[in-house]
Amino acid sequence: MAQVFYFFIFPGLLFASVAGGFLSWFDRKLTARLQFRVGPPMLQPFYDFVKLLAKETIVSSEAAKSLFLMAPVFAVTGACLSCVLIFIPVFGIGNGFQGDLIVIFYLMMVPTISYIIGALASGNPLSNLGASREIKLLIGYEFSMLLVLAAIILKAGNTVSIHDIILLQQQEGAFIGSLSGVLLFIPLMMCVQAKLAFVPFDLADAETEIAGGIFLEFSGLTLALAKLAKYIMMLVLPSFVIVVLLGGFRLDGIHILWSLLKLIGLVLLITLVRNTNPRLTVGQSLRFFFIWMNLIAVVAILLAYAGL
C-alpha cells in the first residue's frame, strides 16, 4: 500500500502534478511579462487540463490505435516514477537504492520516447517529421547528459545513489562550488532545456513550421495526459539538477525557503533562455551538443578526476 501511495499521492502523481502545474504557470506568466503581456491566471494550467478532459479524443483512421492511445499514459508513468525516486530521499521517506541515479536517468527518457511512439503511431506525416526530429535531438542531448552523470559519479566517490550524493554535498558543499561543477551545470541545463522541448530545442513541435508536429494528432484525453507529463517534468528536471549539483533540498528552518528559491531560480533561468534565443535547426542542435556540450563535459570530467 505504501508504494501505491508514493506513486499516486506523494511524492508521485498528485504532488508532482500540482507542483509542476504551478511551475508551468510561473514559466508562462514570466514569458508573458517578458513580452509585455498580462499572462494567464495562476490556475490556468489546471483549467487547461480539465477542459481537455471534457473534449472528444479523436483518433485518425490511419493510426495504430493502441500505441497512439497508450503513449501518453507511458509518458505520465515515466515522469511520475522519476519524481518518486528523486523525492523519496529528499523528503526522508527512504534512502532509495544503489543505482537509482542510473534508473532515474532512463526513466526521464520515457516521456520523450512515449511522445515519439505516439507521433509515429498517429499516421500523420507532420507528426512523423516531428518524431524524426525528436529522435535525432534525443541522441544528441542524452549522450551529453550521460557524460555529465559520469562526472557527478566521479565527484561523488563512484556512488550511484541519489541519497549518498545528496548527503555528500550537504557535508562537504554543493558540487557546483567547484570548477568542474560550474562547467557541468552548463551542459546539464542545456539538456534540461532540450528535454522540456523549449526554445532553442523545440524543433519537434514547432508550431510555425510543422503545426505542433509531435503533438499534432493528440486531442482530448491524450493531449491532457501529454500536458500532464510536461507539467510533472517541469518539476522533475530542475529538481534533478538541484539534487546532483546544487546540494539537494533541505526541509528544515530557513533551508526550506532556500530550497524553494533554488527551484524557482532554475525555472527562471529556463524561461529566460527560452525567450531570448531563436529556434535551432536539427544540424545546429546536434553540433551544439556533440561538439560544445560534450567538450565542456569531458573537460569537467578531467577536472573532477584532478579533484577540482
Can you describe this structure?
It is a single chain. The protein has 13 helices and no strands. It is mostly helical and 308 residues long. It has one domain. The longest helix has 31 residues, at 125-155.
Compact summary:
Helix content is 71%, strand content 0%. It has 308 residues and is mostly helical. The radius of gyration is 19 Å and the shape is globular.
Average pLDDT confidence is: 91
The number of domains is 1
Uncertain residue segments: none
- Backbone CA Rg: 19 Å
Class derived from helix and strand content: mainly alpha
Determine the number of helices (DSSP H or I, runs of at least 4 residues): 13
Fill in the keyword field for this structure.
308 residues, globular, single chain, mainly alpha
What's the layout of helices and strands?
Layout: H1 2-8, H2 13-34, H3 44-54, H4 65-90, H5 100-107, H6 110-121, H7 125-155, H8 162-172, H9 179-195, H10 207-210, H11 220-245, H12 255-275, H13 282-305
